[in-house]
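Support case: flavin mononucleotide complex. Customer-provided input:
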Amino acid sequence: MTMDIITAIKQRRSVRTFAPDPLSPSLREHLERFAEHTHSPFGGNVTILLRDIDAGSIFRPETYGMISGAKTYFLISTGSDDSSALSAGYRFEQVILEATRLGLGTCWVGGTFRKSAFESHDAWPAGESLRAVCPVGIPGRARFLERAMTSVMGSYRRKPFESLFYADGFRAPIPASSPLAFPLEMMRLAPSSTNSQPWRATKDGDTVHFYCATSNRYSLIDCGIGLCHFAEGTAHAGIDGSFGTLTEHPVPPRDWRYITSFTLR
Ligand SMILES: Cc1cc2nc3c(=O)[nH]c(=O)nc-3n(C[C@H](O)[C@H](O)[C@H](O)COP(=O)(O)O)c2cc1C
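Agent response - structure generated as follows:
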């Protein structure tokens, strides 16, 4: 039985150890079709492919962590602009949640993948390059090293709600009774590179303005992932609204970068 999307958001954890069993042809086909049909309100160019790749029984990304036993990977290529990065996070996180619903393990892995088994696997559309990969398969028993790493990184820990999300131009907390508290809580649970959780927001009237608190290679992908969780939360709660870039928005208390706004209809 598949789980619902909110349970998937709450239960998903990065999986870095995989069982030897390959993905069944029907699961592969389902995931490929699902990835193809994901969409994003932020535009840009993103390509998502599913491939069998021999990255060794233990794949050590140039960034951190290690993936063991994976045979099948998603490859995510994007244009070099901000919209593409946001959309990559927003679209591929939908695939991660679908895989989670189906009981499969996944782990976002960022990098340049130069001189790796992933490098020349596919010819990407003009202007795009490989920005992330993601093993997908049946979860295996996490090895001691993986458990130690996730514990040291505090991977399961999330920042407190009130340190991320505000109201009235960052001056007040969001009341727990606000209907937007639920989708923001879904955003809070999202995965991010090095668990950096860069998403910030303030709710003013019928609009939530989103900001990014980090500025690294993965910041906008991370924010796209958080916005995907927020959107899944609004859909689940029957909250109708749309994303748009506004010229006027509250000035944040620190050098957080404005990303987008969500206005209720
Ligand atoms: C864009 C992105 C890049 C990531 N890159 C890596 C990586 O290179 N190596 C790794 O082991 N985990 C990577 N992760 C997984 C994060 O470390 C993980 O999501 C975070 O610590 C939170 O843990 P959780 O996913 O178990 O909730 C990445 C996650 C994201 C969103």
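Residues 4 and 101 are 7 Å apart (CA to CA).

Case will auto-close in a few days if no follow-up is received.
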